[in-house]
Amino acid sequence: MCGIFGCVLKEGNAAPLIHASLKRLEYRGYDSVGIATISEGKIYIKKDQGKIDDVHKILNLDDLPGNIGIGHTRWATHGAPLKVNAHPHTDCTGEIVVVHNGIIENFIELKNELQNLGHNFVSKTDTEVMAHLIEETLKQNPKLTFTQAVLDSLKRVEGSYAFAIISTREPDKIVCARNESPLVLGINHQGVFCASDIPAFLAITNKAVMVNNGELAILTAQGYEIRKISDNTPITREPITIEWTPEMAVKQGYPHFMIKEIHEQPETLRNTLRMQEHYLDLLTTFLDRANEVFLVACGTSYHACLAASYMFSKLAFLPTFPVYASEFVEQCGKSVSIDSTILAVSQSGETADTIAAVTCAQQRAATILSLTNVIGSTLTRISRVYIGTQAGPEIGVAATKTFTSQLSVLAQLALKLAKKRGKVSQDEIDSLEENLQKLPDLAETIVNTQEEKIKQIAKKYADSKVFFFLGRGISTATAFEGRLKLMEIAYIPSIAFPAGESKHGPISLVENGFPVVFVCPKDECHKTLIGNIMEMKARGAHIIAVIEEGDQEIKGLADDYIEVPKGIPSVLSPIPFAVPLQLLAYYTALEKGFNPDMPRNLAKSVTVK
Ligand code: M6R
Hints:
- By secondary structure, this protein is α/β, with parallel strands linked by helices.
- It has 3 domains: about 5-250, Aminohydrolase, N-terminal nucleophile (Ntn) domain (Glutamine Phosphoribosylpyrophosphate, subunit 1, domain 1), CATH 3.60.20; about 275-425, Rossmann fold, CATH 3.40.50.10490; about 450-605, Rossmann fold (3-Layer(aba) Sandwich), CATH 3.40.50.10490.
- About 40% of the residues lie in helices and about 25% in strands.
- The chain has an 8-stranded antiparallel beta sheet.
- Helix 19 links the parallel strand 24 (about 540-550) and strand 25 (about 560-565).
- Helix 3 packs across helix 4 (about 130-140).
- The protein is globular, with a radius of gyration of 25 Å.
- 5-amino-5-deoxy-1-O-phosphono-D-mannitol binds near residues 354, 398, 399, 488 and 605.
């Protein structure tokens, strides 16, 4: 997730306005920043790694000439957060300048093709291919207009994008285009703007024009034109008036970041499925060679590790040891050696306990692999190989979209390892791959169909003094995560354990009306789980079951149920089943009058041990 902005002004300098607008988009990414303008047929660019204010202090981002320009605030996906990878990116001639939010899936093929044609790439980004592709299109067809060349080039690009592109060939316009990544136009008496999000320009105009997937827009000081990318047909669309306050706009109209981030999961899951194969392959190779693998993390990331231990075991027959990072040094420190592999998982990549565990393992010559949402974080710097989880910045303290992104990447790794080891039949692999692709839509369906119902369930149980969260098999990890969410934002003491453990102690707490949340995918544990539900019911517990659609058996036993679409393979189930539990925690916190974005005593990134 990055922020893009562009403007064509009737008069005056564009750079200060671009700079101010990028500041308002900084919540979308903040590891590098750049601005390009055109003045008297010349391109001017300033860019560097670092937060906008820090880069501005050194470069003065307001000081570029020209009434037209584009800018970018970056959340690294391809290539480390270095100056060379900061946007804008240019073609070989420096005449075509591009900013981009999204992921170009086929960039390696395009890059190889363009390099073979003599194009010189300077960055490691996927974005740079677009500048060279337009250059090449114009070289092959010199009669094309710049806009037509952008249109033709877009037809070769696969993946998600919001582009804003300028060129000295047609220095009076910005061409922008959208597929899956957000793009919106703004318009006022000063000129026309394009941006990733409305907050970028809300301070100067509340007249906005939405750009849809598969559309391209041409911005000039006189106005805007929208066309279909597929056939260049014009589209008429009038501006609408945005009634949001600036604060609402940053949250895209949602009352809290947490609910915005829960709703973003279809998009973030789509992004994780666009992961570059070679990073997955590289990590898989290390895992395949490993003698012993420790999965190390804290909090929600630890729950992703716990789920991953089932995935690796069931699919790739690889035993792994999930360990709380805060316990790692004491529990495993001495036994770690050159033969050990650590797969550390951290949203922030800065959690002190995780970094301490990894540092200890590194000192003992172990191989360090990691998964993090923040490229350039401490964890990425101390890892041999890392993968970015592509969820975009997460602002709500409670991890939501980053959890499902971590799970999606871990499932892809387990599947790759299974393939490599030949442990699972091709049919099963095909079916799991197909099901992985369905996860974004499943998350969307769950939010669309269950949110209202979950609100009612939250209302019903909000005054409960304590909750149980139970599951069996991989759903134990889902139950742990559901418990953590409810506890940390709704402040209800909650207990989670594998359902089979009830009879070894915790069931003694149960009395009439005691709420027990069961996570019930229709997997190999389903039958036994029904036994656990019965034993809770017999003691008067109220059963809140998260079930697969049409699971009549559990429906008949539950006091309340939440349905997720059916047919999800067990190893992937924590992804869709986590979503209703996130919503349950969110709406319970609201019922109790708490701000879910800022739970007391907690910080987004815990940088103390
Ligand atoms: O940034 P990390 O993933 O390393 O953070 C780990 C935990 O601090 C984090 O998951 C925490 O438990 C959240 N509050 C969970 O919602």
